[in-house]
Amino acid sequence: MNPLPVQSAVNIRPHLQVRHWSRKAKRFAVVLSFLAPSLLLYGLFMLYPMFDAVRLSLFDWDGASPTMSFIGLDNYMNLLKDDVFLQSLFHNLVWVVISLTLVVIPTLVLAVLISKVKKGRLFFRAGFYLPSVISLAVVGVLWAKIYDPLMGPINVTLQKAGLGTLAHNWLGEQWTVLPALVIVGTWAFYGSFLILYLAGLQNIDPSLYEAAEIDGAGPVCKFFSITIPSLRYTMNVVISMVIIYAFKGFALIWIMTQGGPFYKSEVVSTYIYKSAFGMNKVSYATAGGVLLAVIVITLTILFNQWRERRE
Amino acid sequence: MLISNLKKFVATASVSLLLVAGCSSPTGSSSNAPAENKEPAAAAAADNKQLSLLIPNFYNDTEKHQWESVVNKFKELNPGVEVTLSNGDVNTESGKLTTTLQSGVTPPDAILMNAGPGRVSILSDVGLIKPLDDWYAKNSWKDKLQPFAYQMAAVNDTIYELPHTVDAIEVYYNKDIFEKYAIPVPQTGDEFVATMKKLKDNGVTPLNTAARTSFTVGGLFSNIMESVAGRDAVEALLYGEKQWTDPEFVKAGEMLADWAKQGYIGKESMSLNLADLQLSFLDKKVAMMISPTHLISTIVDKQEEDSVGAFTMPSFIGGEKTDPTGGLGYTWVVPSKAAHPEQAENWLNFIVSEDYANVVLSDPSYNLIPTSQAALNVKPAGALLTSAIQSIEARSGYNPSVFIGSEAKEAYYQNLVGLVGGLVKPQEAMGRIAEGVKKDQEAGYQLTR
């Protein structure tokens, strides 16, 4: 007697399942073999140090001594009572705000203008990208000279133009030092953001502009109604990068002011560097680093959530 | 969903970390045991006649030539030894030296760093440099050093450094500017202020410092403290017998702030570094600057020996005499992981020898004051250095930044810059330095007599 069709299906199912899982396992092995080297390196050089940093931040350790004592969250509690750390964190937030103001829209406008250029577009692209390829050490030294209160071109020009009252000791005064540094940081990185915008602009369908023109839309209307909405993903990337760069910034500040004068340009990264290597408070500095990372990650997640909700 | 996953991840990660941290032995990280206990690769390289030295960056070619002469003399006395001289940042304040020694890369055999227990302790506290007590006993270095140099190195139970130079921080001035306005060298504190006022009234910036190279502001303030509070009071302060908030030190802070407010200290000081400061002084844009003798080589390099003079900042305490401030200038330390410690010992013996003193002091451009007894028998060729050596023959004052701990030093530099920039009140500034001292004391840093 031939088995019923249902019965035969039941009999062959285990066999099919084995083949199915075997195929899945093979595919997984292939994928893993491709991913393993980078995963291994990522784990070794990124994940392990990150988790080890959190572990270290729970100890009292000077960076070289053979002993370290477990102190739980004391480093974090002390950081929250440390005036200089809190001031540094505030400076980081100011840096974020000024950077966003100077980068997001102005760079987009610049990218749009360059994209409209008929001849010499390459020249403008290369020219504006140039600062991004200069070493930050060179940028720091260069701008320190530009900001020089006596011989710097800014003050010299202001004085020659009869605007001497506007001349400042840009890196030496409490209200000018931070904006002056942010301008340098922006100048050094805006080429990278410009390239992102230019790439985004190339992906906008030209027929949208043509349709808008037929409907009588002007350049400003097209910019706000077509360009900005079409570039929202690029803008999200730019904003995220600006926030991360603003919190990570170290080299320029270290070269130009080392956090001075009187902590007025101190940011978390310079403060934790001083704590770790100038004062041997390695675990304390590590806690500062962890706290900074948590803040950056939280801000980035919150920003992305807000963006997703809006969309 | 995203938030739920995130919460799970954060919770799992936190628990794992706390478990890992809690289970770790308090004496974990055995790989960080001080290398001095391991007797590093030195044994393997016992017959290797190599010596690598890390010294401060040269300010000019003159200093480079000085060091070439020194190394050549050493090689002449030690045939077959290959010396590698490299330059770098030797301040503990910038963190580079500590980072270099902690990096695991084979360190130099000896390092010439900015001196003083406050700086050396940053390295010795964590076992990055060798104790030198054995070498002191074996080579009789105590007898080969001038007594005050030895005393300054031996402020704690263990000695980690061999003093190379002592500082004499004084006022350097442009003679031609003083002559142009018929200003004599001031003899009292009041005359010094009058000098600055006269220069300012004539449109000349009297004094500059370099906030971006903070030890220059520290040097300036050390002179003011010596002049306002006196040497004994500063000594008592550094040994913990007085407080930074005591009236005489607050008065010194008020004076620094007032000089800046009156325009006696150029406003541009807030954004100058050491190189800018030296250039502004030697280009006659400013009448005076406060400096150790390091400046001499730049003066010689710029051929300004005849137009620059030096004097000790006079006292504001009636009838008292002041001394140039200082303490140790540069000092030699030997990294725990040095590959050729026997050659380092050989080199340090050379540094305290008459051969070394002869080489450096016969050079008119030489700019440092040696610490060896042997150097006392050699007459320096340069006039400015001769004058500086004579000025501290009897004794020198104190430069606090050499003696205070790391927390206090950070507060010291930042608050002095704050005073120059009008960003902090003197009483508050001294209070913050006192807080730094307290933190250092809690961490076990204290000078003992």
UniProtKB/TrEMBL annotation, chain B:
Keyword field: Signal, Transport
Top-level taxon in the UniProt lineage: Bacteria
InterPro entries: Bact_solute-bd_prot1, SBP
Signal peptide boundaries: 1-29
Entry similarity comment: Belongs to the bacterial solute-binding protein 1 family.
Name by which UniProt lists this protein: Extracellular solute-binding protein
Organism of origin: Paenibacillus rhizophilus
Lineage: Bacteria, Bacillati, Bacillota, Bacilli, Bacillales
